[in-house]
Amino acid sequence: MDDTPRGRLLRAAAHLFLEKGYERTTMRELAEAVGILSGSIFHHFDSKPAILEQVMAEVIELNTELLEHASESETAPRARLRALIHRELESIHGDTSEAMTLLVAEWRSLDAGAQKRILTLRDRYERIWLDAIELADRERVPMSPFLFRRLLGGAIAATSMWYAPSGSIDIDELADAILLLGVKTPERSA
Asked: Are 170 and 104 in contact (CB under 8 A)?
């Protein structure tokens, strides 16, 4: 979400939809948040549901690109998993945090067609994870890649409830700790 009027509108929508709820946010409030007339929104989007879908689509596309880059930057399986964990933590606690949270918080506000389109985008994101997990098969505790991803994803997502990047634990230390949840250590290898 760049600094164009459209990008500012999407950022404001992510913030307001999360803060007030999608249903309770009006088009007038969105327009006021970016300093435009409410009718000007329709120059960029046909409807409020289209704005919600676009916020979700753009955050998935951006974070998929960043996840691909993180995956490609590491060749060792364990290092690749850690890079993905770190990247996902950054997406949840960094610039895209509101839009990432919105994916879960307002999922049911999307109609069936929009949900299907967003799931198609999400599948590419999840495929990067599953490929890295399968690559690390010998280095992780034995369980299906799907289950391992769900456990990692849950642990990473739950950090939004307690972790503060400005606190005493930095994101690198947090990524290391989450990695230890599912990789073999000398005590667990056998």
From this structure: no
**Single-letter amino acid, residue 185:** T
Q: In terms of Cα–Cα distance, which of 58, 126, 138 is closest to 98? A: 58
Helical H runs in the chain? Answer: 5-20, 27-34, 48-72, 77-93, 97-105, 112-135, 145-158, 171-179
Q: CATH no. for residue 126?
A: 1.10.357.10
How far apart CA 27 and CA 43 sit, in angstroms, is 13
pLDDT computed for residue 2 by the predictor: 72
Distance of alpha carbon 95 from its chain centroid, rounded? 11
Ramachandran region, residue 35 (left: φ > 0; alpha: ψ -120 to 50; beta: rest): left
Give the predicted TM-score (pTM) of the model: 0.88
pLDDT at position 141 over 90: no
Question: pLDDT band at residue 1, thresholds of 50, 70 and 90?
Answer: low
In the chain, how many domains are there?
A: 1
Helix (H, G, I), strand (E, B) or coil at 37: coil
